[in-house]
Amino acid sequence: MLPRRDVFDIRAQLMAEDSLEPGDQTLTGLARSDDIIPKVYEGGFKTWECSLDLARFIARKFTQENLIDSDHELHVIELGAGTAVPTTSRPKTIFTLCDYNPAVLSHASIPNCLLAFASQHPDLTPFPDTETISTPASLQTAFTTSLATNKIEIRGVSGGWSKSFCDLVMQGTPPLNMVKPSFISTEDKAPRHTLILASETIYAPSSLVAFTETILRLLEVAEAEPLTMSASTVLIASKKIYFGVGGGVSEFLRILESKGGSAQVVWDTDWDLKEGEARGIGRCILQVGR
Fold first, then answer.
1. Could you give the 3-state DSSP secondary structure of residue 252?
2. What is the DSSP annotation of 50-105?
3. For range 272-278, the mean pLDDT
4. By the 8 A CB rule, do 238 and 54 touch?
5. 226-247, pLDDT tens digit by residue?
6. Kindly report the CA angle at 58 between 243 and 106, in degrees rounded to 5?
7. CA 86, 271, 279 angle in degrees (round to 5)?
8. Confidence band for 1, pLDDT divided at 50, 70 and 90
9. Range with top average pLDDT, 41-45, 81-85, 105-109
10. In what side-by-side order are the strands of the sheet with 192-199?
């Protein structure tokens, strides 16, 4: 079971708190039936299909194929984090969750990390068969304590794709648990692996160039870090084409190659298609490099 907050629950909280900044139209996006409203709300409160593909792929790689050496520190950067489904947890990890809308980070991405923790600790709060669970103060305290004990740091960065956005992601922001683990000290020489994740982020042709440049910039900075004595990995999950929107894998690959990048398909829905099963809209996961 993969617990996550329901859109109705988030909408009710935002309306009750009245905590959005003046001019923030996030509630407008939640109230309408549109999946996205360009430059207003980019669909972060919804769990999209490809994020589940990516979560399954990562889980398999971690458990069966040892994607990241267990001795390496891990920096997970999830672009367009939304409900943060693909993000996985392990000790000695920095999670940088990024979304266009700040409210998505504070009301979906981070709370879903807490829910994932709760699902693994039924002794702290019963995990019922119903759609509602309680999150008492004791659970929240146990969560932040576990983060510190296991040297896990969670950060949130909001904004559009740009160089300044990349600088924020790689330089870091104050951790949400307000504890800066000693393992990220520049004096620490342990190898670090940077894992960059994105799902359903290449649907809009207007943002493909900026997104591609962001990916390549993050890779460049990660690989140039003195601490990085291991490789970086970039995984992007996407539908092959977004009907009615215009984006998709082919256009992304064209732009990526023009910027000096490359990609290979590491998973495709066709590979898991059973005999007689309807094909539907094709989806895949790309591994991107420079």
1. helix
2. HHHHHHHHHHHHHHHS-SS-TTSEEEEEEET-TT--S----SSEEEEEEES-HHHI
3. 69
4. no
5. 554 556 889 999 999 988 777 8
6. 75
7. 95
8. low
9. 105-109
10. 152-158, 93-99, 73-79, 192-199, 233-239, 283-289, 262-268
